[in-house]
Amino acid sequence: MHQIQPTAPVLCLASASPRRQELLTQIGVPHRVRAAHIDESVLPGELPRDYVIRMARGKALAVRGAGEALPVLAADTTVVLDEAVFGKPTGRRECIAMLTSLSGRTHDVLTAVALAAGSDVAVSVSASAVRFRELTDEECAAYWDTGEPRDKAGGYAIQGRGAVFIEWLSGSYSGVMGLPLFETAQLLLSAGVPCWQAAAR
Asked: What's the pTM value of the predicted model, to 2 decimals?
Protein backbone atom coordinates (compact mmCIF):
# COMPACT_ATOMS: atom_id res chain seq x y z
CA MET A 1 0.00 0.00 0.00
CA HIS A 2 1.41 3.36 -1.03
CA GLN A 3 1.83 5.82 1.81
CA ILE A 4 1.92 9.58 1.40
CA GLN A 5 5.20 10.90 2.72
CA PRO A 6 4.98 13.98 4.91
CA THR A 7 6.17 17.16 3.27
CA ALA A 8 9.37 18.61 4.73
CA PRO A 9 8.83 21.74 6.82
CA VAL A 10 9.12 25.00 4.90
CA LEU A 11 8.51 27.23 7.91
CA CYS A 12 9.26 27.48 11.61
CA LEU A 13 6.37 28.53 13.85
CA ALA A 14 7.66 30.47 16.85
CA SER A 15 4.76 29.38 19.04
CA ALA A 16 3.72 26.32 21.02
CA SER A 17 0.05 27.25 20.57
CA PRO A 18 -1.89 24.25 19.24
CA ARG A 19 -4.41 26.66 17.73
CA ARG A 20 -1.77 28.37 15.59
CA GLN A 21 -0.39 24.99 14.54
CA GLU A 22 -3.87 23.85 13.50
CA LEU A 23 -4.47 27.04 11.51
CA LEU A 24 -1.17 26.70 9.63
CA THR A 25 -2.01 23.08 8.86
CA GLN A 26 -5.45 24.20 7.66
CA ILE A 27 -3.87 26.27 4.87
CA GLY A 28 -1.38 23.55 3.97
CA VAL A 29 1.91 24.93 5.28
CA PRO A 30 4.21 22.17 6.61
CA HIS A 31 6.10 23.54 9.58
CA ARG A 32 8.07 22.76 12.66
CA VAL A 33 7.55 24.36 16.06
CA ARG A 34 10.14 26.22 18.07
CA ALA A 35 8.53 28.25 20.83
CA ALA A 36 9.86 31.72 21.57
CA HIS A 37 10.37 32.89 25.12
CA ILE A 38 10.52 36.66 25.56
CA ASP A 39 9.42 39.20 28.15
CA GLU A 40 5.78 40.02 27.33
CA SER A 41 5.43 43.01 29.66
CA VAL A 42 3.70 46.08 28.28
CA LEU A 43 5.95 49.15 28.29
CA PRO A 44 4.75 52.30 30.07
CA GLY A 45 2.55 54.31 27.72
CA GLU A 46 2.80 51.72 24.95
CA LEU A 47 -0.17 51.62 22.58
CA PRO A 48 -1.85 48.21 22.08
CA ARG A 49 -1.03 48.09 18.34
CA ASP A 50 2.62 48.93 19.00
CA TYR A 51 2.69 46.27 21.71
CA VAL A 52 1.46 43.38 19.55
CA ILE A 53 3.81 44.38 16.72
CA ARG A 54 6.77 44.49 19.11
CA MET A 55 5.83 41.10 20.58
CA ALA A 56 5.42 39.38 17.20
CA ARG A 57 8.70 40.83 15.88
CA GLY A 58 10.49 39.94 19.10
CA LYS A 59 9.34 36.31 18.98
CA ALA A 60 10.34 35.90 15.34
CA LEU A 61 13.76 37.46 15.89
CA ALA A 62 14.37 35.42 19.07
CA VAL A 63 13.90 32.14 17.23
CA ARG A 64 15.81 33.33 14.14
CA GLY A 65 18.63 34.54 16.41
CA ALA A 66 18.81 31.10 18.04
CA GLY A 67 19.96 29.68 14.73
CA GLU A 68 16.75 28.71 12.94
CA ALA A 69 17.44 28.43 9.20
CA LEU A 70 13.85 28.31 7.94
CA PRO A 71 11.69 31.43 7.67
CA VAL A 72 10.22 32.09 11.12
CA LEU A 73 6.56 32.99 11.63
CA ALA A 74 5.43 34.50 14.93
CA ALA A 75 2.21 36.06 16.15
CA ASP A 76 0.87 37.89 19.17
CA THR A 77 -2.75 38.48 20.13
CA THR A 78 -4.21 40.88 22.64
CA VAL A 79 -7.67 41.94 23.71
CA VAL A 80 -8.15 45.70 24.01
CA LEU A 81 -10.87 47.53 25.93
CA ASP A 82 -10.71 51.30 26.44
CA GLU A 83 -7.06 51.22 25.24
CA ALA A 84 -6.16 48.78 28.05
CA VAL A 85 -4.35 45.58 27.06
CA PHE A 86 -5.91 42.38 28.40
CA GLY A 87 -3.29 39.65 28.28
CA LYS A 88 -3.45 36.14 29.70
CA PRO A 89 -5.05 36.11 33.17
CA THR A 90 -2.69 35.35 36.03
CA GLY A 91 -5.38 33.64 38.08
CA ARG A 92 -9.06 33.15 38.80
CA ARG A 93 -9.68 36.63 40.23
CA GLU A 94 -8.06 38.43 37.29
CA CYS A 95 -9.88 36.29 34.74
CA ILE A 96 -13.27 36.96 36.32
CA ALA A 97 -12.44 40.69 36.45
CA MET A 98 -11.54 40.63 32.73
CA LEU A 99 -14.73 38.83 31.74
CA THR A 100 -16.81 41.16 33.90
CA SER A 101 -15.23 44.15 32.14
CA LEU A 102 -15.97 42.63 28.71
CA SER A 103 -19.56 41.74 29.64
CA GLY A 104 -22.15 43.53 27.48
CA ARG A 105 -19.49 45.51 25.64
CA THR A 106 -17.57 45.53 22.36
CA HIS A 107 -13.82 45.08 22.52
CA ASP A 108 -11.03 44.91 19.95
CA VAL A 109 -8.79 41.95 19.25
CA LEU A 110 -5.44 42.76 17.67
CA THR A 111 -3.17 40.07 16.26
CA ALA A 112 0.19 40.93 14.75
CA VAL A 113 1.94 38.43 12.50
CA ALA A 114 5.67 38.68 11.82
CA LEU A 115 7.71 36.73 9.29
CA ALA A 116 11.50 36.73 9.57
CA ALA A 117 12.90 35.61 6.23
CA GLY A 118 16.43 36.41 5.16
CA SER A 119 17.48 39.71 6.74
CA ASP A 120 13.96 41.16 6.71
CA VAL A 121 11.06 41.02 9.18
CA ALA A 122 7.67 41.75 7.63
CA VAL A 123 4.70 42.47 9.90
CA SER A 124 0.94 42.64 9.36
CA VAL A 125 -1.81 43.40 11.87
CA SER A 126 -5.36 42.08 11.97
CA ALA A 127 -7.98 44.06 13.92
CA SER A 128 -11.38 42.65 14.84
CA ALA A 129 -14.29 43.82 16.97
CA VAL A 130 -16.06 41.35 19.27
CA ARG A 131 -19.20 41.97 21.32
CA PHE A 132 -20.01 39.97 24.44
CA ARG A 133 -23.52 39.50 25.77
CA GLU A 134 -24.14 40.26 29.43
CA LEU A 135 -22.41 37.71 31.65
CA THR A 136 -23.26 36.72 35.20
CA ASP A 137 -20.68 36.36 37.96
CA GLU A 138 -21.60 32.68 38.17
CA GLU A 139 -20.91 32.16 34.47
CA CYS A 140 -17.53 33.87 34.69
CA ALA A 141 -16.52 31.71 37.66
CA ALA A 142 -17.79 28.52 36.01
CA TYR A 143 -15.90 29.35 32.82
CA TRP A 144 -12.65 29.77 34.76
CA ASP A 145 -13.26 26.37 36.34
CA THR A 146 -13.30 24.71 32.88
CA GLY A 147 -9.59 25.51 32.61
CA GLU A 148 -10.01 27.02 29.13
CA PRO A 149 -9.22 30.70 29.89
CA ARG A 150 -5.88 30.15 31.59
CA ASP A 151 -3.60 30.79 28.58
CA LYS A 152 -5.93 32.95 26.49
CA ALA A 153 -5.64 36.69 25.88
CA GLY A 154 -8.63 38.38 27.49
CA GLY A 155 -9.47 35.20 29.36
CA TYR A 156 -11.57 33.51 26.67
CA ALA A 157 -11.33 31.26 23.59
CA ILE A 158 -13.60 31.99 20.64
CA GLN A 159 -13.05 28.47 19.29
CA GLY A 160 -13.97 26.85 22.60
CA ARG A 161 -16.59 27.13 25.32
CA GLY A 162 -16.17 30.91 25.33
CA ALA A 163 -18.01 31.06 21.99
CA VAL A 164 -21.33 31.17 23.87
CA PHE A 165 -20.46 34.66 25.17
CA ILE A 166 -20.09 36.24 21.73
CA GLU A 167 -23.05 38.11 20.22
CA TRP A 168 -21.22 39.16 17.08
CA LEU A 169 -17.84 39.49 15.46
CA SER A 170 -16.61 41.93 12.83
CA GLY A 171 -13.25 41.06 11.35
CA SER A 172 -11.18 37.88 11.25
CA TYR A 173 -12.32 34.78 13.13
CA SER A 174 -8.87 33.19 12.70
CA GLY A 175 -7.33 36.46 13.87
CA VAL A 176 -9.30 36.29 17.11
CA MET A 177 -8.13 32.67 17.45
CA GLY A 178 -4.53 33.86 17.21
CA LEU A 179 -3.38 33.61 13.60
CA PRO A 180 -5.20 35.67 10.94
CA LEU A 181 -4.98 33.48 7.85
CA PHE A 182 -5.44 36.18 5.22
CA GLU A 183 -2.57 38.29 6.57
CA THR A 184 -0.45 35.19 7.21
CA ALA A 185 -0.91 33.91 3.66
CA GLN A 186 -0.01 37.32 2.21
CA LEU A 187 3.22 37.44 4.20
CA LEU A 188 4.13 33.88 3.20
CA LEU A 189 3.44 34.49 -0.48
CA SER A 190 5.58 37.63 -0.43
CA ALA A 191 8.45 35.55 0.96
CA GLY A 192 7.96 32.77 -1.61
CA VAL A 193 6.41 30.30 0.84
CA PRO A 194 3.36 28.72 -0.83
CA CYS A 195 0.19 27.56 0.89
CA TRP A 196 -1.81 24.41 0.07
CA GLN A 197 1.15 22.04 0.09
CA ALA A 198 0.37 18.32 0.21
CA ALA A 199 0.38 16.42 3.50
CA ALA A 200 1.11 19.58 5.53
CA ARG A 201 1.51 18.93 9.22
From this structure: 0.92
